[in-house]
Specification:
single chain, alpha+beta, two-stranded antiparallel sheet, 3 helices
Length: 120
């Protein structure tokens, strides 16, 4: 009886330096074990149930500390039934420059090359 193994599992097993999958003893338990430890796209998505409340005429939600956004502004959009809130990009180059930390390294002095005569 031939077992059906997802292609991503075969790729994962092969790239991890294991012998080629046809030489492995792939049982239902071993496949489930490997699938549990495979990285998935949903592994990075964290979620938490939050309470929605009214603030005046607006609906509001408190953002938990682990989902804290950087900056003071955010961009909100709706995609289907999903509400997406992202940190707003900086408004200008000056805003980006003010957030940069000063460099700690010393730069060598720049020698004065003098001015060339230019005719207009």
């Amino acid at each position: 009886m031939k077992s059906i193994v997802p292609v991503s599992l075969l790729d994962h097993v092969a790239s991890a330096g294991f012998p080629w999958p046809d030489k492995l003893k792939l049982t239902r338990n071993s496949i489930q074990h490997r699938l549990r430890h495979m990285p998935t796209r949903t592994a990075a998505i964290r979620e938490r149930r939050v309470r929605i409340f009214k603030n005046g005429r607006n609906q509001a939600v408190r953002i938990p500390r682990e989902f804290e956004l950087s900056g003071e502004d955010a961009v909100m959009r709706k995609e289907g039934e999903r509400l997406i809130i992202e940190a707003a990009p900086p408004k200008s180059l000056l805003a980006v420059l003010t957030k940069l930390k000063p460099l700690a390294e010393e730069f060598p002095p720049i020698r004065d090359l003098g001015l060339d005569q230019v005719e207009l």
